[in-house]
Write a structure and sequence with these properties.
- The protein is 16% helix and 39% strand.
- It is α+β, with helices and mostly antiparallel strands and 80 residues long.
- A five-stranded antiparallel beta sheet has the order 4-3-2-1-5, with helices on one face.
- Strand 3 and strand 4 form a beta hairpin.
- The protein starts with 15 loop residues before the first strand and ends with a strand.
- The model has no long low-confidence stretch (mean pLDDT 95).
Length: 80
């Protein structure tokens, strides 16, 4: 299946937003389709992550989708 989330989005229009306490992951790009990522525990996503350690600015980079899903809950999905 084609990866419909493979194009990088701006921080103010992420594909998904996950939250856990003071932490927030804004998913800006998926490297694999949803189907492929579901089978791959090492599926990566490009995110902006804000936490008490980033002092409100956030850090950009890749992280494992499975780590996000294990520790946070999905609070927002943007289709357009």
């Amino acid at each position: 299946m084609k990866n419909l989330k493979g194009k990088k989005r701006p921080v103010d229009n992420p594909y998904e937003v996950y939250r856990a306490g003071d932490w927030e992951w804004r998913v800006l790009k998926h490297y694999q389709s949803d189907e492929a990522a579901a089978k791959n525990p090492y599926a990566r996503v490009y995110c902006q992550v804000t936490s008490p350690f980033t002092y409100g600015s956030g850090d950009l980079g890749d992280t494992y989708l499975s780590d996000i899903v294990k520790s946070a809950r999905l609070v927002e999905v943007n289709h357009g």
